[in-house]
Amino acid sequence: MKYKLPAEIEENYQLIGIACHQKDFKLAFLFNSKLKFSFVRTKNLTKFSKVKEQTHEFSMFYWFDGMNRIEYYLISNRFQDAYLIDSMKQLDYFLVIKTDNMQIDLNNMITELKQTPEILGVFNIDESSFKNIQNLIQDLEIHITQLNKEDKSAEEEVKKNFQKNKITRGLKR
Predict the structure, then answer these.
(1) Quick one: how far is CA 63 from the chain centroid?
(2) Mean pLDDT, rounded, of the chain
(3) Which of 4, 91, 148, 166 has its CA 20 to 30 A from that of 132?
(4) Half-sphere exposure of 76 toward its Cβ, with a 13 Å CA cutoff?
């Protein structure tokens, strides 16, 4: 009997917009306590503005749900007078959810968040109504790839230093 494996795993992205005047770390804490997430701050997402000819950094938090294999990114939409997504200035944050062929109950999550007094509004953003979602996803993927490269090079540096210290300690004895 032959089994046929799928050619590739399809990744689904879902986007939730959040209106909230809390600081980024407080909102991440709310997610952690209310929804039992484990957000951790990561390196800021950078975006170059052609209009202002400068780079802006948007705060970002990350959590990987290993049991369900779901990645969550909480990204600020504002940096001083700039926006990550100009067409959605009314939103303060985006929750990007990346899944591998698995549907999650967004309605339940949105309902939980709407009941939180610190959050002013939560909106499920439909891909068809948001033209630039692919640009956001591509920027996010590039950013994550860069972070992974930096982590690997830092890990290699630690290994080199460990080996170097191990050899020098052995020579001193």
Answers:
(1) 7
(2) 81
(3) 148
(4) 25
Return d(Cα 62, Cα 26) in angstroms, integer: 14
Other Cβ atoms within 10 Å of 168 Cβ, number: 9
Short-list 47, 59, 137, 127, CA closest to 93: 59
Whole-angstrom distance, CA of residue 98 vs CA of residue 77: 18
Q: What six digits make up the tokens of 13?
A: 């992205």
Tokens of 76: 């600020």
Q: Give the span between the Cα atoms of 61 and 74, in whole angstroms.
A: 5
Q: Which residues of 22-59 are buried (b: 16+ CB within 10 A; e: fewer)?
A: bebeebbbbbeeeeebebeebeebebeeeeeeeebebb
Dist. CA 58–CA 128, nearest whole Å? 24
Model confidence over 147-165: pLDDT tens digits?
Answer: 878 777 666 767 676 666 6
Q: Are 23 and 138 within 8 A, CB to CB?
A: no
Task: Give pLDDT tens digits for 89-110.
Answer: 899 999 999 887 666 778 888 9
Q: What CA–CA distance (Å, rounded) separates 82 from 47?
A: 10
pLDDT of 131 above 80: no
